[in-house]
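Hey, can you fold this one?
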Amino acid sequence: MTDMPELHTRLLADVIALGSPYPLVLTGGYAVRAHRLVNRPSQDLDVATENPAPIARTGPSSRRRT
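Sure. Predicted structure:
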C-alpha cells in the first residue's frame, strides 16, 4: 500500500512504536487492502491485540475526533 495518507502513515508508525510491547495487528480497511481484497479509502486505523491488559495501560488514551 503506497497510497496511505501522510496522517495515517505517521499514526501507524506511532501505534507500532507505542504498541511494541503488545502483539498488535492491523485490522479493518487497511488490513483488507493490504491483502488486496478491496481497494477503497479508509478513514481510520484499526488495530487489535489479544493482550489482556486494560487499554489504559497499552498507551496514551485516544479519542475519536469528528
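The mean pLDDT is 82. Let me know if you want another pass with a different chain boundary.
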